[in-house]
Amino acid sequence: MAKVNVLSLNPARVNCGIVTGSERSLIIDSGPGPNTARLLAHRAAALSEAANGRPNPIDVVTTHDHWDHCFGNSALAAEGAGTFFASRSFAVDQEASSWIALDALRSDPETHEFARKLPADPADLLVEVTPIESGHSVLDLGDCRVEFHVLGGHSTADVVVRLPDLGVVFTGDLVEEGDPPQAGADAALGDWVRSLETVLSFSEASVFVPGHGVVVDRDFVARQCADIDGYRTMSADAEVALPARAMPGEHDRTFPRECELRLD
């Protein structure tokens, strides 16, 4: 059976995934920069070596075009990652999004020092992208089928990663745990609600990996969908302060951390 690992990394406390199949591995989001990307590449190689006796070829999917999820892409390419999947919107807007985000990181006192570790030229953050067509595409890792679903709402470039045989969904920032979901200028609450309704329609799914925070269940996603739907009816369609929700119980919230999902 394929293995699914979730790595929660700073800065931005972002969740990245590694799915280790019998033939290929998939990294879900490259993280905020070169250091996290190299960590993911080396960890993916180690996991496939342990599972299959050899390093797997690695593909990458980007859940959306916010810097903390994609600024490691070029470093992963340098480490030998093969195909980079993302929405067509990401492919079209990648250059402009990188320029805007890098400038914002350099201007923000909280991220200024981190931005110094990033390439000086935003063009050095770019990779060749294989666009996921509208609807969904399928990738075979050998013993694990992966579906990429192009949705929207948190951004104009949202993709969720569904592992239908394992009951796992990586939602990107369409779901956030522990902190409020971020609804910025590129958000559309109506689309966001419809996207979460689509995610909830995956009847086999019981484990949901949010873009930030600990792994959540179906009830959590339904509650966050209801929260966003409520604000949609009361507010403008973007740049609103959404409420935070936390998973009940005790959870490891240290950073950095890694967990292997239990899929029995």
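Next protein, fold it too.
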Amino acid sequence: MLQSNLPMTEGQKRLSMVAKTGSRSYSITAKDVDLWYGDFQALKKVTFNAKQGIITGLIGPSGCGKTTLLRSFNRINERYGNVTTEGEIRILDKNIYDDDVSLSELRKTVGMVFQRPNPLPISIYENIVFGARVHSGRGELKRSERDEMVESALREVQLWDAVKDNLKRRATSLTLEQQQKLCIARLLPLKPRVILMDEPCSALDAEGIERVEELISSFRDRYTVIIVTHNMAQARRATDECVYMLLGEIMEHADTAELFLNPKRKETEMYIEGRYG
């Protein structure tokens, strides 16, 4: 588990205490969530629970609302403008729409990994410490703190051995697999409790997919991971539970093996058999 010298904010301490005491079985709960982009309704009365410390997959045809739902969990949808959200979303039992919620703090607790790796065009080292410097609130971090932070984060994503002798190397010169691992590592000094992943392997080759899936699997019990994927084989391999979405609604949510072997809804069966979407 990553150890960092970056102090927790009071809000993160409260969220962390809920998780550590085990007083809640879910990291995320959503109830009757509706979301519109202008006049288009992308989510319709979505109710969803994500258990702590497991990997939950969101699957469904393009345009079904899975990425919109994913982005709702750290309110990043609001960056796109003209977005209206109704209903309730709670992260570690805190309503993320409460007036006292800081978006900066929320996005530290709920990290995001995008479809295409997006490292900053600076060194590997500076990519890791960038977020910590922005959010530390106490001036420049000591060199020893930064060094420890960088090594710990890169070790956790299994990238340290490959880059430890070239930490000043420009991050954008790494392979796509390494860039995606770096983007995951960049989150870790901020002590996230939840990690959202929007098709994190879609830009990778077969070997890269396998290694990133191994990394995601290693996050079980330490983080709650929500992953959007169009790859049914990946959903089977990499997730503990799966949610099938269609036209902005959740059709089915079950253990992954149960959903693929014994789907309850005809729509789910048609999708996983390749007859729809």
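About the second fold: The chain has one domain: 10-272.
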